[in-house]
Amino acid sequence: MMSQVCEDIAIQNENLKLVRTLEEIYEEILDYLKKEFNIDDIEITLVDRDDNSEDILFKSNEVLDEESNFVFELIQSEHTEIKIIIKSFDNELMNKNKFVMNLALQAFSQTLYNKLLKDKLKDLTLIDNVTGLYNRHYLDNYADKILSLSNREHKKIAFVKVGIDQFKAVIDEFDYSVGDKVLKTLAKTLKDTVRNSDIVVKIDGDEFLVILPNTPQESALKKAEWIRKSYQLNLAKVLPDLRSNSISIGISTSPTNADNFEKLYHAADKALYEAKYEGRNCCVTAS
Known about the structure:
Layout: H1 2-17, H2 22-37, E1 41-48, E2 53-59, E3 69-75, E4 80-87, H3 91-125, H4 136-152, E5 157-164, H5 167-173, H6 176-193, E6 199-204, E7 207-213, H7 217-238, E8 247-254, H8 261-277, E9 283-285
Parallel strand pairs: 8-9
Antiparallel strand pairs: 1-2, 1-4, 3-4, 5-7, 5-8, 6-7
């Protein structure tokens, strides 16, 4: 009997490994517990064992009655555990099946933890280590999907390409640590001036791209001017000796300038270099 139970848990866990997203894993665990043990709700929490801090990963119900909760603390590493709180109105059945449920949750939590680590590692490969923004790798993987969605919904989308004027001269006159401060200042300016739905990417060197969904050209130009002015104000606070440093910006919009990623990006890039050619510290829209 117990061997069959263990085999069923192993099969379920193998199926869990095939699930693509964390949210789907949470739902699969909840469905399994409801089906096999008649539970009502669960809460899954990631616990840092060093400082006892907790991060709730999933909760199937906003209110869990503490009196009817069963807590499973599943250690994953020296520093981490996954805590699963289960709510059930059938306490007799829960107590009867607690041992088997613990076996199942031990297996499932390890699969869940491995997925958490994998996603975290993937996120690190998509983040620029100086600015904390998405990097070119992220752009290569996701930009086409963003543009495709915008085209399907017949909404305009703007690409705002930002370049720091004479960045190499800043490095030559000062050093790379000052250059990093300039990059971080621009990154913070971009994050502080865009919406939650907008995407900010560090392309390479001194260039950034801001993707503005559902944004026509006129609105994109206003946002670009705001970014340009905000950057100089912020830089003057952080690096007074570089208060005169500026940025140039090129703007393209879909479908006005192009309807695919490569052409839209190229149009914004071309507009950026036109801005630099016209004297820097200005915004130019693609023609």
